[in-house]
Amino acid sequence: MALRRVYADPAVPRVCRRELWAWCGFDFANSGYTTVVITAIFSAYFVATVADGAEWATFAWTAALSVSYLLVMAMAPLLGLYADAHARKKALLVLTTSVCGLGTAALWTVGPGDIALALVLIIITNTAFGTGENLIAAFLPELAGEDGMGRLSGYGWSLGYFGAVLLLAACLWWVQGAEARGSDTITAVRDTMLLTGATIILAALPTFLLLRERIVAAPRAFAVLWADSLRRWRGVLGGASDLPQLGRFLACIVAFQAGVGTVIAVAAIYAQQALGFTTAESITLILVVNITAAVGAMAFGHLQDRIGHRNALAIALVGWLIAIGLLASSEARPVVWIAANIAGVCMGASQSAGRAMVGYLCPPSREAEVFGLWGLAVKASMVLGPLAYGAISWLADGNHTVAMLATAGFFITGLVLLFRVDVGRGRREALGLPV
Question: How many Å apart are CA 211 and CA 94, to the nearest integer?
């Protein structure tokens, strides 16, 4: 099976191997943001130090994330249509990545009590991150053939988790060495924000230099793009209009990604508040989980091209349910580690499979538009899941186990919706063939 897409039109630049690496390398660059800022370090630092462990702190954290996801959702259809019409995916990618990297470095200024500053910076950086995530994903159908999207998506996720492991290991080394340097944990945690911001921008440079636009610009007036974006919004809400199977899958994504997003947003908070992990222990746990996530993304990237995107994704969602069941049933360290690593494998698998399946259902020359809708669905889930978790934990007087059990409902709903998607029919819809 060919990995690179082959174009019959000689005027379209051929896809070279280094460009595939450059595309995958962006996952290496931006994964450090979610891992260090959202999952492992800054989230727990905000709850325990910035907000001084207040009962509402987890809810405030998830609410700020939800605001950023709502902003990404609001902009996604318009930016996708604009990027396709003006061939500006790469230019927008450079802009959003720069904002994310510089904003992350600015988190270094956040100390105890700086609640407003912390939340504003999180909203800005996470909005930039989410928009960039949509833009880089839109290049996938341009680079890979239809039977290679799963593998390329898997390679990207895997390389992303590998990058997250390296950055998180460096952060762990810095935090653990604080006392020996005559410093303290709070200062060391703030320093990791500078390291993460610099890594995001520097590691993305190969992507900026090597990735090429292949869509020919056909500029359209802003008023036309605005009207079309509103129609796309209505299309998503009503089933993606001319792509009903894609619409069904987007609904499935909202469900299962709500569970995935919850785990990403509260992993360190859960480890420290519910399981009694120290900062160093929670970083170590998440570091190891990123390794298993890389394995899951790589393995399932190959598997889904063999057994089908839907079947591979279903296996991953069942694995999520097993992990949550184990995590909620026992606080014993061996059980926690087993559950966490099962979740890691399934995290890499479900995210990789979801992105590849959207690429498979995407019509030619509508990549940025469709992946803007994918981003809209993912961000809707990121509003729903973490916000529900934060509200439940608050209402349950800080009982994180109850909130984690509720998260299983998202994966069950995702499984039910997944089997309503006819992948073969969806591919014919994407190609404009009789269905």
Answer: 11
How wide is the angle at C-alpha 244 spanned by C-alphas 131 and 388, nearest 5°? 50
In contact, 151 and 294? CB cutoff 8 Å: no
Look up residue 319 and give its two tokens: 């694995």
Q: What are 197's two structure tokens?
A: 């911001």
Give the Å distances, CA to CA, from 116 to 52, 68, 111, 120, 201: 14, 14, 11, 6, 25
Three-class DSSP category at 330:
coil
> How is 303-329 classified by DSSP, letter by letter?
HHHHH-HHHHHHHHHHHHHHHHHHHHH
Q: How confident is the model at residue 1 (pLDDT cuts 50, 70, 90)?
A: very low
On whether the CB atoms of residues 144 and 152 are closer than 8 A, the answer is yes
Q: Which residues does 188 contact at the CB level (< 8 Å), separation at least 6? A: 174, 175, 177, 178
Residues 352 and 153 sit within 8 Å (Cβ to Cβ): yes
Task: Indicate if the pLDDT at residue 144 is higher than 50.
Answer: yes
Q: Residue ranges of the alpha helices (H) in 87-147?
A: 89-106, 115-137, 140-143
pLDDT digits (tens, 9 = 90+) for 7-62: 656 667 787 888 888 888 888 888 889 889 988 889 889 988 999 888 788 889 98
